Amino acid sequence: MKRKAMPEPFDMGVPPQPARPTKEVDWIEETVGALCDPLIVWPGPWMDTIPEERRKELPLHRLAHIMLCNKGKAAWDEATDLEALLYMYPLTLEHPISEQWTRIYLYLGTKALKGMPDDIKQESLSDYDMGELRDLKRWIYRKRVEARKARARGEKAETKAEPAKYEQARFF
What we know:
By secondary structure, this protein is mainly α. The chain has helices at residues 27-36, 52-70, 81-94, 99-112, 127-152. The protein has 5 helices and no strands.
């Protein structure tokens, strides 16, 4: 009698786990980075208006993200939901954003903040929107690591000619 193959976890209703990075992760460096890395935000006149309360919450969100990464429930190469929300905050005050990015912004607010009004909560995203969000979170994480390495070398983080804005046209 032939044995039936076990179904993949996705077939049993369990979403697939994020892939682990191919390189070895230095969790001590990541933990120190969670506490000391700078906040990456949309550069502009509104970047100083981010509420101090949210800035103070950020290290705790980063540490919780590291714990999820250690358990295989989150990707090491992504920023937290709160980081993505805080990156977009000055942008939303400077320019109107597209309908897609409005959905993503409301989703981040629903996940990262408590007390979102029911009429604007965004509980889930389409696969495409989630892919766009993950791209943004990876970009923010890369910029954070670049700033960490630049600080270790004693340089200023934004000395390159490369703009710090995340592909500006994508938000509009």
